[in-house]
Amino acid sequence: MSLLFKQRNPKGASQRKLGLIGRVVGVIVSNIRQILTALGEIWRDPVPSILTVAVLGVSLTLPSVMYVVVKNAEQVEQHWQNAAEISLFLQQDLTSQQLSTFVKQIELHAQVEKIQLISADDALQEFEQLSGFGGALQMLDKNPLPNVLLVTPMQEYASASAAADLLLEFEQMREVDFGKLDIEWLRRLNSVLQLIKDTMGSLTILLCASVVLIVGNTIRLSIINRKEEIEVLKLVGATDAFIQRPFLFTGLWYGFFGGIIAWLSIEIMLFYLSGSIATIADLYQSNFKLTGLNVREMLNLLLISMSLGLIGSFLVVRKQIKLIEPDTA
Amino acid sequence: MIRFEQVSKTYPGGHQALQKISFHIEAGEMAFLTGHSGAGKSTLLKLISIMERPSVGHVFINGHDLSAIGPRKVPYVRRDIGMIFQNHRLLKENSVFDNVALPLVIEGYGLKEIRKRVHTALDKVGLLDKERYYPHMLSGGEQQRVGIARAVVNTPPILLADEPTGNLDPKLSLDIMRLFEDFNSVGTSVLIATHDLGLIARMKYRTLTLKKGRMAEDGLTDNGHGELL
């Protein structure tokens, strides 16, 4: 395209007789070429790039770790939510006849999913095994433990308030000494989770802002470093958009590598923690497993980090490149 | 082709680089621009390539007023002007081939066309065998010829040269000038800023002489200068 010389007709890309598809393919190919060129530039001067990418990785790791923590905690919470269990401690003086009638009665209750009776004898045996007070217990002439009935409410009545209502109803019964629904800790867990989520929200915003700023500053420095080259490009007629593009792609790459580093750090941390988590889960007789990021979440992480890199470079590139004007001197 | 109408340029701070310059270089003409250092040669060239804008007056290229060209369109104007610099302005990290190909890459030529044109341009300046070299492996004269190849690779109608022989010995300088004559002979308008008066005298072309920002002389140089040097 020539502004000043209409008759001038260079056989440039714009002049070649290409169909729409051909042109689209051309644009895609040239963009891919520039994306790879930007990667080559990073490779050619790796030290500042590695440092930047490392900082980005750390910045992105923090919110991602919190995300994983919340995700796992929610799983635990759900697990407990479903297993909301009411323990009914029965009166000591019930005959076995009364006991079996009562158990039958509870079992048939409309809101009860299932029951499990831990008889006083079973409880004593278990206590002996686990507590190590076996010898001391021998000295007792009478089993001090009550019969305990574990009641699991139906799914619809498993929520904290419904279970509490159910507990109240059971406590009215003559056979029940007292009941226990350990719901408080569930509430506490809930609010702690909420706190972590809120903290994660604000920290994520801060750390994302820092990613944008870090990328912006790195790109700014690399533009200043390549001032001479940019001047030459401007002298031979490159548009600002043409000069900007490789820097934008560099920002994209920084985001990509930062995201990869964040993902790797999470995987390494999970691997490192999985041993101790398994031990704890074992102690709680739970088959809880620590879960990391699935493929979709990982792609989201990459997408977010790449957009942040792009935004960071976009914010500085326009102005910085406009500032550089060639000088023949 | 290049027409100045009462052009003055005052830099911020009050330095008057050019005062009421008027001249017209026809299409296909070759001319020298001379004068002492600081006489305004570089400023005049910058006004043509829109690196600077005139404070007063108008510059026309091919009848188009450059003051009507917005900043976004400046790159397209520069694609019509081949520029050659005293310090070559090559990209150090790129090979000779890549340096010469730059204007074509910017304009979006296909790889096949680029290869063909770069080879033609390098052949013209006699460096076809050095396309894989890097600028620092070449002598000063060779680097300058790479710069010239880059300036002519997209066959611009205008060629501007700012002290193209500044660092070269007389023999090499003359070779470079012969190159410009070759480009001129195929219809390119050529404007060469130089203070190498001996060279100008030998070449016998129209010479614009600037003195303290004013046009002191416009015409053929007399032979006297040449004999002295």
How do the helices and strands line up, and which of them pair or pack?
The complex is a heterodimer of chains A (329) and B (229).
Chain A: H1 20-44, H2 46-82, E1 86-90, H3 96-107, E2 112-118, H4 120-131, H5 134-138, E3 148-153, H6 160-171, E4 176-181, H7 184-225, H8 227-235, H9 240-283, H10 295-323
Antiparallel strand pairs in A: 1-3, 1-4, 2-3
Helix pairs in contact in A: 1-9, 2-7, 2-9, 7-9, 7-10, 9-10
Chain B: E1 2-10, E2 16-25, E3 30-35, H1 41-48, E4 56-61, E5 64-65, H2 74-78, E6 81-84, H3 96-107, H4 111-124, H5 140-152, E7 158-162, H6 170-185, E8 189-193, H7 197-203, E9 206-211, E10 214-220, H8 223-228
Parallel strand pairs in B: 3-8, 3-9, 6-7, 7-8
Antiparallel strand pairs in B: 1-2, 1-4, 4-5, 9-10
Please tag this protein with its features.
heterodimer, A: 329 residues, alpha+beta, 4-stranded antiparallel β-sheet, B: 229 residues, alpha/beta, 6-stranded mixed β-sheet, disordered C terminus
Task: Please sum up the structure shown.
The complex is a heterodimer of chains A (329) and B (229). Chain A is α+β, with helices and mostly antiparallel strands and 329 residues long. Helices cover 69% and strands 7% of the residues of chain A.
Overall description:
- Chain B: InterPro entries: AAA+_ATPase, ABC_transporter-like_ATP-bd, ABC_transporter-like_CS, ABC_transpr_LolD-like, Cell_div_FtsE, P-loop_NTPase.
- Chain B: It is a peripheral membrane protein.
- Chain B: Homodimer. Forms a membrane-associated complex with FtsX.
- The complex is a heterodimer of chains A (about 325) and B (about 230).
- With about 325 residues, chain A is α+β, with helices and mostly antiparallel strands.
- Helices cover about 70% and strands about 5% of the residues of chain A.
- In chain A, strands 2-3-1-4 form a four-stranded antiparallel sheet.
- In chain A, helix 2 packs antiparallel against helix 7 and helix 9 runs antiparallel to helix 10.
- The radius of gyration of chain A is 34 Å and the shape is elongated.
- Mean pLDDT of chain A is about 85; it is low at about 10-15.
- By secondary structure, chain B is α/β, with parallel strands linked by helices.
- Helices cover about 35% and strands about 25% of the residues of chain B.
- Chain B is built from eight helices and ten strands.
- Chain B has helices at about 40-50, 75-80, 95-105, 110-125, 140-150, 170-185, 195-205, 225-229, and strands spanning about 1-10, 15-25, 30-35, 55-60, 65, 80-85, 160, 190-195, 205-210, 215-220.
- In chain B, the strands form two sheets. Chain B has a six-stranded mixed sheet, with helices on both faces. Chain B has a four-stranded antiparallel sheet with strand order 2-1-4-5, covered by helices on one side.
- In chain B, strand 1 and strand 2 (about 15-25) form a beta hairpin.
- In chain B, helix 3 (about 95-105) packs across helix 4, helix 3 (about 95-105) runs parallel beside helix 5 and helix 4 (about 110-125) packs across helix 5.
- The radius of gyration of chain B is 18 Å and the shape is globular.
- Chain B starts with a strand and ends with a helix.
- Classes of the chains: A alpha+beta (about 325), B alpha/beta (about 230).
- The interface between A and B is medium-sized, with 32 and 37 residues.
